Amino acid sequence: MKNIILPLVLLLIGCSNEKQQQNISINDLADIYVERILSTYPESSYYVDMTIADHSGLYIPDSSNMAKWEVFEDSLYSEIQKVDDPDVLSKVDRITYWLLKEELESSIQFRICKRQLWNINHMWGFYHGAANIADFQPVGDETSREQAFIRWNKFPELVNTEIQNLEKGLNKGYSMPKEIVELVIDQVEILANYELKDSPFMSPANRDSSVVFKEKWELLVLNNINPSLLKYANYLRTDYLDKARAEVSVLSLPN
Q1: What percent of the chain has pLDDT over 70?
Q2: I want to staple 247 with a disulfide (CB 3.0 to 4.6 A). Which of 100, 169, 221, 252 is the partner?
Q3: Which is it for the CA torsion 47, 50, 54, 59, positive or negative?
Q4: What is the rounded CA–CA span in Å between residue 229 and residue 199?
Q5: 145-172 as b/e, with b when 16 or more CB fall inside 10 Å?
Q6: Mean pLDDT over residues 95-104, rounded?
Q7: Shortest CA distance to 240 belongs to which of 172, 176, 192, 148?
Q8: What angle, rounded to 10 degrees, do the helices at 91-110 and 24-40 form?
Q9: Residue 47 CA: distances (Å) to CA of 34, 78, 135
């Protein structure tokens, strides 16, 4: 997911869809940004109550996907810099302009942190987001059920990518504090070891009337989701923890 202010940005930019002829370029840029956000990070739609047709997508933070996003951000930022005098815009369009400009600048400048290389977080880790997405996942008809299976069969790939990113981080001198890593290990193990009926990942099946779907979903949780979570926790415990940093301050990280 993008940064924590993204839902607010999407909501406010999304409210500026009424195009004025003289300022159509600003609104077009905002529309392009929102559309690309929703196609790249479809999960974000649930947090801003925006409708999407396809609920099978799951963002995988590998180097290829991240590079594509950065190219898009840079190109859009180049376009917004072509606005000579934003003060001549209407009030509504100035808000759109400054929100979009600030969002792009902050995201571009944040790249130096290489956050994907030490993405272990006990407050909003990827597994927290996954549990929330399970609760949002549409079901109730064959199309929705099919999309749900497509999305959640990608979960092992997401976990493997998170592990690969952490490995790259360790090799480059990036890590999280040991105390945070220990908290995350405990959280992930608890999540993976819930009784099946209590697992948050059973939400799609619990909200659907199909017995066949529920049976198949149970197998998905038991054979794909829970083992992937345990793989992640085991990696943190056996490979990562001893290499995690003792210092809490981010000043101990590169750059």
Answers
A1: 91
A2: 252
A3: negative
A4: 12
A5: bebbbebbebbbebbbbbbebbeebeee
A6: 94
A7: 176
A8: 40
A9: 13, 28, 12
